[in-house]
Amino acid sequence: MGDVQQQYKPEAFIFDMDGTLFETDTLLRGVHERIFETLRQEGLYMGPTPPVDKLLGCLGMLLSDIWNNVMPNSSEAARNRADELMLQYELEGLEANEGTLYPHVEDVLQELKARGYKLFVASNGLETYVKGVAKHRGIAALFDGLYSAGEYQTLSKVDLVARLLKDHKIKSAWMVGDRSSDVEAGKSNGLMVAGCAYAVYGKAEELKGSDVLLTDFRELLKLIP
Protein backbone atom coordinates (compact mmCIF):
# COMPACT_ATOMS: atom_id res chain seq x y z
CA MET A 1 0.00 0.00 0.00
CA GLY A 2 2.97 2.33 0.47
CA ASP A 3 3.36 3.00 -3.26
CA VAL A 4 -0.39 3.42 -3.65
CA GLN A 5 -0.50 6.02 -0.87
CA GLN A 6 2.44 7.96 -2.32
CA GLN A 7 0.64 8.27 -5.64
CA TYR A 8 -2.82 8.72 -4.16
CA LYS A 9 -2.89 12.39 -5.21
CA PRO A 10 -1.05 12.41 -8.54
CA GLU A 11 -0.02 15.36 -10.70
CA ALA A 12 -1.62 13.85 -13.80
CA PHE A 13 -3.91 11.23 -15.29
CA ILE A 14 -2.93 9.40 -18.47
CA PHE A 15 -5.80 7.76 -20.35
CA ASP A 16 -5.93 5.18 -23.06
CA MET A 17 -8.46 6.18 -25.75
CA ASP A 18 -10.22 3.08 -27.19
CA GLY A 19 -12.15 1.12 -24.58
CA THR A 20 -11.36 3.69 -21.89
CA LEU A 21 -12.69 7.08 -22.98
CA PHE A 22 -14.22 6.16 -26.33
CA GLU A 23 -16.72 3.33 -26.82
CA THR A 24 -15.02 2.26 -30.01
CA ASP A 25 -17.52 -0.33 -31.24
CA THR A 26 -20.10 2.46 -31.70
CA LEU A 27 -17.88 3.68 -34.55
CA LEU A 28 -16.01 0.57 -35.62
CA ARG A 29 -18.87 -1.82 -36.46
CA GLY A 30 -19.81 0.19 -39.55
CA VAL A 31 -16.17 0.92 -40.42
CA HIS A 32 -15.30 -2.79 -40.29
CA GLU A 33 -17.97 -3.72 -42.86
CA ARG A 34 -16.90 -0.92 -45.21
CA ILE A 35 -13.21 -1.91 -45.05
CA PHE A 36 -13.86 -5.46 -46.23
CA GLU A 37 -16.39 -4.43 -48.86
CA THR A 38 -13.76 -2.13 -50.36
CA LEU A 39 -10.96 -4.70 -50.12
CA ARG A 40 -13.12 -7.19 -52.03
CA GLN A 41 -14.07 -4.58 -54.66
CA GLU A 42 -10.37 -3.87 -55.17
CA GLY A 43 -9.49 -7.57 -55.36
CA LEU A 44 -7.16 -7.42 -52.34
CA TYR A 45 -9.11 -9.75 -50.06
CA MET A 46 -11.66 -12.23 -51.38
CA GLY A 47 -12.70 -14.07 -48.23
CA PRO A 48 -15.76 -13.40 -46.09
CA THR A 49 -15.70 -10.47 -43.68
CA PRO A 50 -14.09 -11.62 -40.41
CA PRO A 51 -16.28 -11.21 -37.30
CA VAL A 52 -16.11 -7.63 -36.02
CA ASP A 53 -15.45 -8.99 -32.53
CA LYS A 54 -12.10 -10.20 -33.82
CA LEU A 55 -11.17 -6.60 -34.65
CA LEU A 56 -12.58 -5.25 -31.38
CA GLY A 57 -10.55 -7.84 -29.49
CA CYS A 58 -7.38 -6.40 -31.02
CA LEU A 59 -7.98 -2.83 -29.89
CA GLY A 60 -4.96 -1.52 -28.02
CA MET A 61 -2.51 -3.35 -30.31
CA LEU A 62 -0.33 -1.62 -32.88
CA LEU A 63 -1.97 -1.55 -36.33
CA SER A 64 0.48 -4.02 -37.85
CA ASP A 65 -0.45 -6.57 -35.17
CA ILE A 66 -4.18 -5.92 -35.59
CA TRP A 67 -4.30 -6.96 -39.27
CA ASN A 68 -2.05 -9.96 -38.69
CA ASN A 69 -4.69 -11.19 -36.23
CA VAL A 70 -7.82 -10.19 -38.14
CA MET A 71 -6.74 -11.48 -41.57
CA PRO A 72 -3.62 -13.60 -40.98
CA ASN A 73 -3.31 -15.01 -44.52
CA SER A 74 -3.66 -11.69 -46.31
CA SER A 75 -1.06 -9.98 -48.48
CA GLU A 76 1.01 -7.03 -47.35
CA ALA A 77 -0.85 -4.91 -49.93
CA ALA A 78 -4.19 -5.87 -48.34
CA ARG A 79 -2.95 -5.01 -44.85
CA ASN A 80 -1.52 -1.66 -45.97
CA ARG A 81 -4.76 -0.80 -47.76
CA ALA A 82 -6.76 -1.82 -44.67
CA ASP A 83 -4.70 0.69 -42.65
CA GLU A 84 -5.60 3.47 -45.08
CA LEU A 85 -9.28 2.52 -45.25
CA MET A 86 -9.63 2.18 -41.50
CA LEU A 87 -8.37 5.71 -40.90
CA GLN A 88 -10.42 7.15 -43.78
CA TYR A 89 -13.66 5.52 -42.69
CA GLU A 90 -13.08 6.28 -38.99
CA LEU A 91 -12.59 9.97 -39.72
CA GLU A 92 -15.63 10.04 -42.01
CA GLY A 93 -17.68 8.38 -39.28
CA LEU A 94 -16.49 10.82 -36.61
CA GLU A 95 -17.34 13.76 -38.86
CA ALA A 96 -20.81 12.24 -39.35
CA ASN A 97 -21.19 12.19 -35.55
CA GLU A 98 -20.85 8.41 -35.24
CA GLY A 99 -19.25 6.94 -32.12
CA THR A 100 -19.76 7.92 -28.50
CA LEU A 101 -17.75 8.42 -25.34
CA TYR A 102 -18.45 6.12 -22.41
CA PRO A 103 -21.05 7.46 -19.96
CA HIS A 104 -19.82 10.31 -17.70
CA VAL A 105 -16.40 10.60 -19.39
CA GLU A 106 -16.73 14.26 -20.34
CA ASP A 107 -18.09 15.31 -16.92
CA VAL A 108 -15.35 13.47 -15.02
CA LEU A 109 -12.59 14.88 -17.24
CA GLN A 110 -13.94 18.39 -16.71
CA GLU A 111 -14.02 17.85 -12.95
CA LEU A 112 -10.44 16.52 -12.88
CA LYS A 113 -9.32 19.52 -14.93
CA ALA A 114 -11.15 21.88 -12.55
CA ARG A 115 -9.32 20.28 -9.62
CA GLY A 116 -6.01 21.15 -11.24
CA TYR A 117 -4.86 17.79 -12.58
CA LYS A 118 -3.01 17.53 -15.89
CA LEU A 119 -4.74 15.20 -18.34
CA PHE A 120 -3.16 13.22 -21.17
CA VAL A 121 -4.03 10.52 -23.70
CA ALA A 122 -1.56 7.75 -24.54
CA SER A 123 -2.81 5.51 -27.35
CA ASN A 124 -1.32 2.94 -29.72
CA GLY A 125 -3.52 4.38 -32.48
CA LEU A 126 -2.74 6.71 -35.37
CA GLU A 127 -2.23 10.40 -34.63
CA THR A 128 -5.06 11.63 -36.88
CA TYR A 129 -7.52 9.15 -35.36
CA VAL A 130 -6.67 9.89 -31.72
CA LYS A 131 -6.82 13.65 -32.26
CA GLY A 132 -9.96 13.21 -34.39
CA VAL A 133 -11.84 11.43 -31.61
CA ALA A 134 -10.87 14.12 -29.08
CA LYS A 135 -11.83 16.91 -31.47
CA HIS A 136 -15.13 15.53 -32.74
CA ARG A 137 -16.29 14.39 -29.31
CA GLY A 138 -15.49 17.84 -27.89
CA ILE A 139 -12.86 16.90 -25.29
CA ALA A 140 -9.61 17.96 -27.00
CA ALA A 141 -9.29 21.21 -25.00
CA LEU A 142 -9.29 19.29 -21.70
CA PHE A 143 -5.97 17.58 -22.42
CA ASP A 144 -2.43 18.81 -21.91
CA GLY A 145 -1.20 16.36 -24.54
CA LEU A 146 -2.53 13.71 -26.93
CA TYR A 147 0.19 11.09 -27.41
CA SER A 148 -0.10 8.34 -30.03
CA ALA A 149 2.19 5.62 -31.31
CA GLY A 150 1.42 6.93 -34.80
CA GLU A 151 2.89 10.35 -34.03
CA TYR A 152 5.88 9.31 -31.91
CA GLN A 153 6.68 6.04 -33.72
CA THR A 154 7.04 4.14 -30.45
CA LEU A 155 7.19 0.35 -30.47
CA SER A 156 5.28 -0.07 -27.21
CA LYS A 157 3.01 1.89 -24.89
CA VAL A 158 5.73 1.63 -22.21
CA ASP A 159 7.95 3.81 -24.42
CA LEU A 160 5.10 6.19 -25.29
CA VAL A 161 4.22 6.84 -21.64
CA ALA A 162 7.91 7.23 -20.74
CA ARG A 163 8.21 9.89 -23.46
CA LEU A 164 5.12 11.70 -22.17
CA LEU A 165 6.36 11.72 -18.56
CA LYS A 166 9.75 13.04 -19.63
CA ASP A 167 8.34 15.73 -21.94
CA HIS A 168 6.08 17.15 -19.23
CA LYS A 169 8.36 16.44 -16.23
CA ILE A 170 5.62 14.44 -14.54
CA LYS A 171 6.77 12.71 -11.35
CA SER A 172 3.53 11.01 -10.25
CA ALA A 173 0.56 9.97 -12.37
CA TRP A 174 -2.18 7.40 -12.76
CA MET A 175 -2.48 5.29 -15.88
CA VAL A 176 -6.13 4.56 -16.76
CA GLY A 177 -6.82 1.90 -19.40
CA ASP A 178 -8.56 -1.34 -20.33
CA ARG A 179 -5.79 -3.53 -21.77
CA SER A 180 -2.69 -5.37 -20.56
CA SER A 181 -0.59 -2.88 -22.55
CA ASP A 182 -1.96 -0.09 -20.30
CA VAL A 183 -1.18 -2.03 -17.12
CA GLU A 184 2.33 -2.76 -18.41
CA ALA A 185 2.89 0.87 -19.45
CA GLY A 186 1.80 2.11 -16.02
CA LYS A 187 3.72 -0.40 -13.95
CA SER A 188 6.92 -0.17 -16.04
CA ASN A 189 6.92 3.58 -15.49
CA GLY A 190 6.17 3.40 -11.75
CA LEU A 191 2.59 4.64 -12.00
CA MET A 192 -0.62 3.71 -10.21
CA VAL A 193 -2.92 1.81 -12.61
CA ALA A 194 -6.71 2.03 -12.74
CA GLY A 195 -8.09 -0.77 -14.92
CA CYS A 196 -11.33 -0.12 -16.79
CA ALA A 197 -13.46 -3.18 -16.10
CA TYR A 198 -16.48 -1.61 -17.82
CA ALA A 199 -14.90 -2.05 -21.26
CA VAL A 200 -16.03 -5.12 -23.20
CA TYR A 201 -13.15 -5.50 -25.69
CA GLY A 202 -10.54 -7.04 -23.45
CA LYS A 203 -10.76 -9.96 -21.07
CA ALA A 204 -10.71 -9.66 -17.30
CA GLU A 205 -7.22 -11.20 -17.09
CA GLU A 206 -5.88 -8.29 -19.14
CA LEU A 207 -6.37 -6.04 -16.11
CA LYS A 208 -4.35 -8.29 -13.80
CA GLY A 209 -1.85 -6.13 -11.92
CA SER A 210 -4.08 -3.04 -11.79
CA ASP A 211 -4.14 -1.25 -8.42
CA VAL A 212 -7.87 -0.56 -8.70
CA LEU A 213 -10.67 -1.59 -11.06
CA LEU A 214 -13.32 0.84 -12.34
CA THR A 215 -16.80 -0.44 -13.13
CA ASP A 216 -18.01 3.13 -13.77
CA PHE A 217 -15.89 6.07 -14.92
CA ARG A 218 -17.20 8.24 -12.06
CA GLU A 219 -15.42 6.00 -9.55
CA LEU A 220 -12.18 7.75 -10.53
CA LEU A 221 -13.29 10.86 -8.63
CA LYS A 222 -13.94 8.85 -5.46
CA LEU A 223 -10.39 7.46 -5.45
CA ILE A 224 -8.66 10.82 -5.08
CA PRO A 225 -8.94 13.30 -2.18
Automatic annotation (TrEMBL):
One Gene Ontology term of the molecular function aspect: phosphoglycolate phosphatase activity
Name of this chain's protein: Phosphoglycolate phosphatase-like HAD superfamily hydrolase
Organism whose genome encodes this protein: Paenibacillus phyllosphaerae
GO biological process, one term: DNA repair
Transmembrane segment boundaries: none
Domain of life assignment: Bacteria
Gene3D superfamilies membership: HAD superfamily/HAD-like (3.40.50.1000), Putative phosphatase, domain 2 (1.10.150.240)
Pfam families recorded: HAD_2 (PF13419)
Record's keyword terms, sorted: Hydrolase
